[in-house]
């Protein structure tokens, strides 16, 4: 008989479950302004500690401090605040529309608005994002019409994707927003391929890849880092760590040690963490990483540290697996509230202006919604023609599909 | 030319004609491929047009999907079809669906080449014929040449095609035709008509079958190596079989098939892949639907057995001429 004790399988558990008191006391928050801003051509080994810290610009008083501050003017920040408000109100209206049966499904961004909205402002026209389903801020901040987004969500007669795709799986080449797939992680690898193509073609455009904390466990994550590293691809690889993959806490994907950013070290890719609820920090880091890519210094891995305040989707109830109070206890706060306080602190914004902006944006979103609903909703008809179901499988419809279309009565 | 030379030549012609064509895969660059299909391309076109890739099939195909969406025309190699499985998600969920799900906003003009088939003592992971995995995926085209002439023309057509194409190369046919008589000496392509390959640009259209042997008694549907097995079986059995080389499995040239079966009234389907759920089942059902009132006997399939591809039992597994001849007699009710 063996003298050693029986082996034991470790299955990580989150700090708190429904009914427990939320506790983020072991979550270390570096002070705003504390992390250096390295040169664009930095040796990844020289900044290894950045994968364990968090780049933050806004401090508790609402000041923008440190070497990452100052990338945006007040006017630009007010625009950014409006983008985040737009996304939040858009989410709210579309979640309601789903509850009213106007569409089958919706995914909101609550608490993560800064990540995609701020990032988008660091990119140039022609750059290509390979987003997940939780980066609609890339569209909102990029000026994509809300009506088009809603037409897609409603799968109506003006849906740019002709009713073929699940709601929120947008696509807009013109706006640098790659077609969203339901298959997790796939686009992370594709972003590297797109960036390689840009380099092969002697172009100056860059790509960005997006993935959630949970999906970093997919094989595509690993492949993307290998290829990005091997070919020095002009790509910014973003991990949005919102702590939750549906019901699974991030420790299941991370293995209980280190950070997601630290995964970059094994690939020789500069890896940084950023306060994902700090609009200024996300923008500054996005700008640094995209400038690195554009200058030919290769890929950067960014872990955006944030919290998924809402349910995973309209089909999810988070109270079944985490404490209701957990989102309020999240130590990095709310991205909209933090930017608002900063702008008020700077004397360029006020509660009254904020309320007025909110009302104005709400009216815009409602107007867009009315316009979209006039084109039809999944619940009330005016859907794309079933004839269109057979189009676009191939550029030219092969004979067997023509036959099936005729069989279907079209 | 051998089939290897024809495939290499097709790459060369495509790369010279269109700078959007880029070629990569494991050992494809400096070394020129483990089967030599890309030899000399890196030297001629440079490292950014033809290069080595990390050993990651999903990475190779995923990168190619990204490149295709950018506007390049990647031609990538999976070293053996047996190793394509890690890339299936990128192929089935991404490459095949990109045009459809984005309503044409993004497209995926991409060719994935992979050596396929057995008859070479390749054992379990160097012999598989996974074509049915691909023919089941809408949005893909699936092609398998059986000779150097077609290999070049079909590959050029595949590279120009605006949609993703799975290009399966029967490695048993790389250096010469093979009719399943493993105990007889190999005849090289230079002694075969279809080994004569035009040096210039030409295409063999996708979706068109070729009749390799005219006959009146029975129609044999085959592709890849089994074309030669079927031809040999027809000769040796004395049964006047018409042998059709499908060349493209999807989209299928159902018109050529239907015309032949209506003429002969009998149909034999042969493939190396395992039987259950194989592409033969699809062929069988389509022939049954299109030719039911013309059929004089049940449609028969001769295929690989429903087992992993064995090593020592190579010639008991490979559907050789003896099994095809027996099936022909059975069809003729002899």
From TrEMBL, chain A:
| Necessary cofactors | thiamine diphosphate
Give the protein's recorded name: 2-oxoisovalerate dehydrogenase subunit alpha
Dehydrogenase E1 component domain: residues covered: 82-377
Q: Which UniProt keywords apply?
A: Oxidoreductase, Thiamine pyrophosphate
What GO biological process terms does the UniProt entry carry, in alphabetical order?
Answer: branched-chain amino acid catabolic process
Tell me the function of this protein.
Answer: The branched-chain alpha-keto dehydrogenase complex catalyzes the overall conversion of alpha-keto acids to acyl-CoA and CO(2). It contains multiple copies of three enzymatic components: branched-chain alpha-keto acid decarboxylase (E1), lipoamide acyltransferase (E2) and lipoamide dehydrogenase (E3).
InterPro entries, A to Z:
Alpha-ketoacid_DH_E1_comp (IPR050771), DH_E1 (IPR001017), Oxoisoval_DH_suAlpha_N_dom (IPR022593), THDP-binding (IPR029061)
- Sorted alphabetically, which CDD domains does this protein's record hold? TPP_E1_PDC_ADC_BCADC
EC assignment: the record states 1.2.4.4
Instruction: Spell out the reaction equation it catalyses.
Output: N(6)-[(R)-lipoyl]-L-lysyl-[protein] + 3-methyl-2-oxobutanoate + H(+) = N(6)-[(R)-S(8)-2-methylpropanoyldihydrolipoyl]-L-lysyl-[protein] + CO2
Q: SUPFAM superfamilies this protein is in?
A: Thiamin diphosphate-binding fold (THDP-binding) (SSF52518)
For this chain, the family text in UniProt reads: Belongs to the BCKDHA family.
Q: Which residue stretches belong to region Disordered?
A: 1-22, 308-327
* Domain 2-oxoisovalerate dehydrogenase E1 alpha subunit N-terminal intervals: 6-44
Automatic annotation (TrEMBL), chain B:
InterPro entries for this protein: THDP-binding, Transketo_C/PFOR_II, Transketolase-like_Pyr-bd, Transketolase_C
Q: Which CDD domains match?
A: TPP_PYR_E1-PDHc-beta_like
UniProt entry tagged with the keyword Oxidoreductase: yes
Q: Does the keyword Oxidoreductase apply?
A: yes
Identify the SUPFAM superfamilies for this entry.
Thiamin diphosphate-binding fold (THDP-binding), TK C-terminal domain-like
Pfam families, A to Z: Transket_pyr, Transketolase_C
Any idea of its EC number? Answer: 1.2.4.4
Origin: domain of life: Bacteria
Q: Domain Transketolase-like pyrimidine-binding spans what residues?
A: 1-176
The Gene Ontology terms for molecular function here are: branched-chain 2-oxo acid dehydrogenase activity
Q: Which co-factor is required?
A: thiamine diphosphate
Which GO terms fall under biological process for this protein? branched-chain amino acid catabolic process; response to nutrient
Q: Which UniProt keywords apply?
A: Oxidoreductase, Thiamine pyrophosphate
Protein role: The branched-chain alpha-keto dehydrogenase complex catalyzes the overall conversion of alpha-keto acids to acyl-CoA and CO(2). It contains multiple copies of three enzymatic components: branched-chain alpha-keto acid decarboxylase (E1), lipoamide acyltransferase (E2) and lipoamide dehydrogenase (E3).
Q: What is this protein called?
A: 2-oxoisovalerate dehydrogenase subunit beta
* Organism of this sequence: Arenicella chitinivorans
